[in-house]
Each structure stands twice: as C-alpha cells, then as structure tokens.
Amino acid sequence: MTIIQTKSSTTNKVLNYPLNAWYVAAWDHEVTRKLISRTVADKPLAIYRAEDGRPVALADACWHRLAPLSQGKLLAKDEIQCPYHGIVYNSAGRCVSMPAQETINPSATVPSYPVVERHRFLWVWLGDATLANPDTIPDMHQMDHPEWAGDGLTIPVTCNYQLVLDNLMDLTHEEFVHGSSIGQAELSESDFEVTHDDTTVTVSRWMHNIDAPPFWLKNMRDKFPGFTGKVDRWQIIHFEAPSTINIDVGVAKAGTGAPEGDRSQGVNGYVMNTITPETARSAHYFWAFMRNYRLESQLITSQLRAGVSGVFKEDEDMLLAQQTAIDANPDYEFYNLNIDAGGLWVRRLIERMLEAEGRTVSAGRTGRVRDAD
Amino acid sequence: MAATNIEVWQQATVVETVAVATNIQRIVLAPTSPKRAEPGSHLDLFVTIDGERHKRSYSVVDSTADGSRVAISVLQAPTSRGGSIFMHAVQPGDTLEITQPLQNFPLRVGAPSYVLLAGGIGVTAIVNMARVLKNLGANYTLVYAARSRERMAYLPELLALHGDRLRVHIDDEGTQLSVAELVGSVDPHAELYMCGPIRLMDAVRRAWRERELNYPNLRFETFGNSGWYDPEEFIVRVPRLGVEARVPAGRSMLEALEDAGVEMMFDCRKGECGLCEVKVLALEGAIDHRDVFYSERQQHAAAKMCCCVSRAVTSPTGLQADAARGPAIVTIAVS
C-alpha cells in the first residue's frame, strides 16, 4: 500500500495576497477628474479619469523623487503633473514633459496598471500585466443589471483580508454577532454543503420552516404586505478567487417550493462582497446588497443599505478585535472546526495562487499597519 | 521609479556559451537568486579589463519563467572598450557577478499596435518583447535591420516564431531599411520600441517628430555605446584643476577623468540623466554627442557634453584623412 502524504491545510493567521488577480480599487463614482490615492496590495495608486472618461491607475510616486502624484494636478487629455517639480506623465505612465530640460529622459516612467471598469467597480491588476485578462474579473453582474436594484458602501477594515473571507464563508457567526437582525439558532443547527473547483467555492445552507428573523420579516412584508408565518431560508455562498464572495440569500413562505427552485413566494437578495487587500493587516471591503423585487423603491434601497451597514458594523468590530487578539498572541495557532470547510477551501485556492506566483503564503508579521485615514 | 532599478547583486554560473552570429556570443547564466525577467529588462554585470572591474549592461534576450536561466548576447565590436572581449572569453562553469534583471525599457501591455525595431545587436532588447506580444495576440510588426545576414543573431528563430510579422532589412543584400518609409507608415496610435545604433535611433526620432507623432509612444533604450563616429583617442583638459588626460578609444571621458583623480558627478553613465554634464570651454575637433539628454539644438551648440558617453573626434566629417592632424582636444570645466 502506498501512503500518499498530502499537504495539511495550513491555517495562516496573516495570509499573503496573490498579485496576479483583479482587485477592486474603487467604486465607479469615486473615480473622477479629482485625483484619489488608494493603496492596493501594498502599492499606493493615484487614480483618476482622463478627459475622455477612461479610468487610470498609476503608481503614486513620481519617477524622479517619489513625490505622490495623487497630490499633483490633472492636465488636459490623460496627463497628470507631479506636484513637486512639474514632471508630466500620460495615462500609460510615460513622461511627456520635464520642465527643467529640453529633452525627456527615456527611462522616466511610472507603472501604469491595467484597469477595467465593470460591475460599478474599478478593477486593477497589479501583477504580471501580460496575464491581465478581463474575462477573469469575478462575476458581480447583479451590481448593474436591470433585474436587480440596490447599493452598497466601503468598509475600511483593519485586519488581514482573509479574516473577512473567513467571516463570509461561515455564517454561523450570525447567531452570535448579529442576533438582533439576521441571527438565529437554526443557522448552527442546519446542515450545509460545500463544493469547489479550481477558482470557486460554494457553501449552501437551507433552513426549513423557521421563523423569519427581523431583517427578513421586514423584507417579506415589503413584498407581501402584512406577511406572517414560517419561511424557508437559504444562504448560498459563492466564492470566486481570490477575494470575491457573492451570497445568494432569501426567504420564502414555507413549503412553497423555494428549495426546488420556485422562489416566487419569497424575497431574494444578493450580498455582493469583494475584499481588496490594502496591507497585510488592512483591507478595503466593498459590499452592496442587491434585490430582485420592488426594484422601483429607492426607499427600500436606502433602508437595506442602512440595515446591512449596521450588520456589517458588528462584523467590523469583531474582525478588529480578532486581529488585535491575533497580534497580541503570536504564539497561539488557529484551530479549525467542521464549519470552516468553506473557508479552508478558500485558503487552499489562495495558497495555490501564491505558490504559482512564487510568493510566500504567510504575510508574516512584516506587514504594515494601515495609515490613519 | 520605473519598475525595478534597485541593483540586487548575486553570483551566476555560466551554463552555456554559443556563437549565434558573427562576433556575437550567446551566454546563458544560472543566477543564485533567480528573478523573472520582464520584456525590456537588462542586467548589469562586472567585467574585468586589465585587472580592473567595470560594470556593463546587457539586455536579457530570453529567460525561463522563474528566471533560473537568463540569456544575454554580446557583440565583440572592433572598437570594444574591453568588456566584450572579456565576455567572449567566458566559459561554462565560470561565475560572474550580475544583478537581478533591471528595467528601464518596460513594454506596455494594451497599446493598439506595436512596431519593434531592432538594429544589429539591438535585437537583444527586442527578442523578448516580440515573444510576449506574440503570446498576447497583440498587433505588432517586428523590423530587424543589419548590415549583413551573418551578423544577425536569432534571425532563424525570429523567422520561425514571427513569420509574416517579421520584416528583415539587410544592407548588403540591397534591402536597406528606409526610416522615412517605416515611420511614414506607422499607425498614428502605435507604440514603437527600438534598440540599435544611435544613427538609426536619431533618424527615427527625427522622422517621428517631423510626422508629429505622439513622442511618448516612441520608446528606446540606449546604453550609450554607439556614436556618429568611430571612437578615437582624444585629449581632455580641465584648466581649473590643471588636469590633462588622454581618453583612449576604449575608455569613456568620464572614466579618463576619474582615472586622473577628478571627482566627477554622474548617475546613469549611459547618456540619459545629464548629471555628468561638463562645460566645453574650447574645442579642437568636434563633439560626437552620444547622449539622449540634449536636444538637437543643444548638441549643435556644443557648449556642453555628457562626458559619460560623448567623445571628441578630430574632424566633423569623420573622415580618416583628417585624423592625421593628431588627437582632438576638448577643454572643459567640471562642476
């Protein structure tokens, strides 16, 4: 008999991030003719729109003395001027003017990163540009599809991005963290199913014939005024590597066929989450709650955004407390439970990406903490 | 901060040397700390000339994906300053001190179309770019010009890989490159990447400006090692310091001044940054400007020169007949 030694699931407390991936750098509405500075994967970026509307992401440091271009000026067309000595670059990062001399140093360039505007987000690729294929941008089509309505926000989280992924891949925490809105004991009591392929992980959980928690009762009554009674509730968590998680969530009147595919007697939402590593210990957490009912109601859009925002504030507090405890207990390891199956597949897929890039799996303790912002 | 300009030095073992054209040696290196070489990257290494270490730059022709094997190619020029003679003598098993790949000539992904122009040994900077563009399915044309077929490194490989996208111009076969035609037919949104002799690159730059094409779309790299004239020995004088130094054909004026004990300011040593600029006080002969720092107007004025690459020659015509009058003499002021 041959015993094959398989690699055990490592459970890094501070996971490194792949670079050959699309990350959201900003909401579409944040990218304007006014420069913004944003750090993605430890790379500070100067982000803006050219006059023709095309988004641009340049390294936020002038070739000459590294002054932040984001504090400079946008000129005509696609050009940006360094605030320090007036060196001008175009959107490709090529120097087009060196005020103090008659020629341009041919080496003078700043990295210009591939960007794509899609699903209401600006996606940026910081790794090997020759591999940047827009077809690999995660599917978040509900963000701007006529059959869906909703909105979202950004949470600046002061923890390793993987902790957010862990949080979203196992929703049994809802009972304890979100007891007043979406939590209920049936979350922990019901079975779940995990599947995966090379780039995705799916965790599905159905809760049959239960009371709707407050958040869902409100949503049911938005669609079915005066609704009372039991519901079937679902949470189908779709992870797409390296850091996008869209959760198909909803409830339907119990026994009306939702588990078999007929959701007409229910309400359905998609919690769209994409988490962009900022540093080893901070991340930009972009989220939105999209729904496919009462599309005309801006009131419901605002209420849902405020409601989910309150729920996510509870997560943010927990994640910050967790990161603080992780850093305060460097000698203690993570241990895993059966409920972590989804999260561990996520880690496995990310670790494979890191290995393919020849990068270390652990970001270790070298990561910088977030600057005050 | 053009990508990678931090020199990380390491040892590399020579694993293969092979002649790939007349006087051109391909040298494959196995570095101790491999790093992937992006298209357009080069490495610096130390050569030994007369017992002294000197730094030289060579484009990375190709490398394995993980950078564990890196190939360069070296032309042994008749006017070699000594580096290429050293490099042609290395044998498998030798070790060299090299940097990880450095990048001053990055290829931008996403241009609507590309022209890659290689002149002679300049092909070494272009081979990798062409391969990447082919892999990306980009719209590109590869133009390769040289004086004769036997001087063209990698020609069979390039023909096999790029087929109709490769246009070959060979002087002694009567198919000389016409810069006017080339630049005249370039798609106005194309990016042109070139590496070759300075005469070729000057001609392309001039044609590019005349056609009023977008200047930042013209990309080039020069290691400052070719001029309008063959290098000849000349004399440099610095009256304020009472220095007179001989600049041999195989040595730069900056090196000669350093050898003479003059404390010089410099950075790139390839005619780009302008830090080694000296004022020309008097001149017997002409200046062979080999830099890309000065505009044509400034070069023509000949009031200053970049001493890292530019030289003095006896005759503005460059004719050997005039050289009999003795070495050119340039009198300068240094900072």
From TrEMBL, chain A:
SUPFAM superfamilies: Bet v1-like (SSF55961), ISP domain (SSF50022). InterPro entries: Cholesterol_7-desaturase, Rieske_2Fe-2S, Rieske_2Fe-2S_sf, VanA_C_cat. One of its GO terms (molecular function) is monooxygenase activity. Coiled coil: none annotated. The keyword Cell membrane does not apply. Residues 22-124 form the Rieske domain. Keywords: 2Fe-2S, Dioxygenase, Iron, Iron-sulfur, Metal-binding, Oxidoreductase. Pfam families: Rieske, VanA_C. The keyword Iron-sulfur applies. This is Aromatic ring-hydroxylating dioxygenase subunit alpha. The lineage of its organism: Bacteria, Bacillati, Actinomycetota, Actinomycetes, Micrococcales.
TrEMBL record, chain B:
Coiled coil: none annotated. GO terms for molecular function: 2 iron, 2 sulfur cluster binding; oxidoreductase activity. Residues 232-327 form the 2Fe-2S ferredoxin-type domain. Pfam families: FAD_binding_6 (PF00970), Fer2 (PF00111), NAD_binding_1 (PF00175). Gene3D superfamilies: 3.10.20.30, Nucleotide-binding domain of ferredoxin-NADP reductase (FNR) module (3.40.50.80), Translation factors (2.40.30.10). The keyword Cytoplasm does not apply. Keywords: 2Fe-2S, Iron, Iron-sulfur, Metal-binding. Residues 7-108 form the FAD-binding FR-type domain. Its cofactor is FAD. The keyword Metal-binding applies. This is Oxidoreductase. It comes from Cryobacterium glaciale.
